[in-house]
Design goal:
This protein is of the alpha+beta class. It has three helices and two strands; from the N terminus they run αααββ.
Length: about 100
């Protein structure tokens, strides 16, 4: 599949890379500090919005750094939510995730 991205889309993506790497580090640090938690808990802990955290959490899962713990927690609204955890909590994480 070949997708033709607009130049402005590529530029926006490139400009977000430094912020994305910082957000990855914040998410990993929150999981180290808090243990198994919901995305909503991470959002509150690092004071970032849902779209940013959930998007970066997804690619940390794809990089096999974070996984679904198999457990569920509750959101503030009482809904069931995945409890996320670090795949290998004893590993040292690179600053350029």
């Amino acid at each position: 599949m070949n997708i033709n991205y607009q130049a402005t889309s590529r530029e926006a993506w490139r400009s977000f890379l430094p912020d994305s790497a910082k957000l990855d580090r914040l998410i990993m640090k929150s999981l180290e500090d808090l243990g198994e938690v919901t995305c909503q808990s991470i959002e509150g802990y690092i004071d970032r919005d849902h779209q940013a955290v959930s998007g970066n959490l997804r690619h940390l899962v794809e990089k096999n750094l974070v996984e679904d713990s198999g457990q569920r927690g509750k959101t503030r609204s009482g809904r069931s939510a995945i409890l996320w955890r670090i795949v290998n909590p004893t590993d040292q994480f690179s600053l350029d995730l």
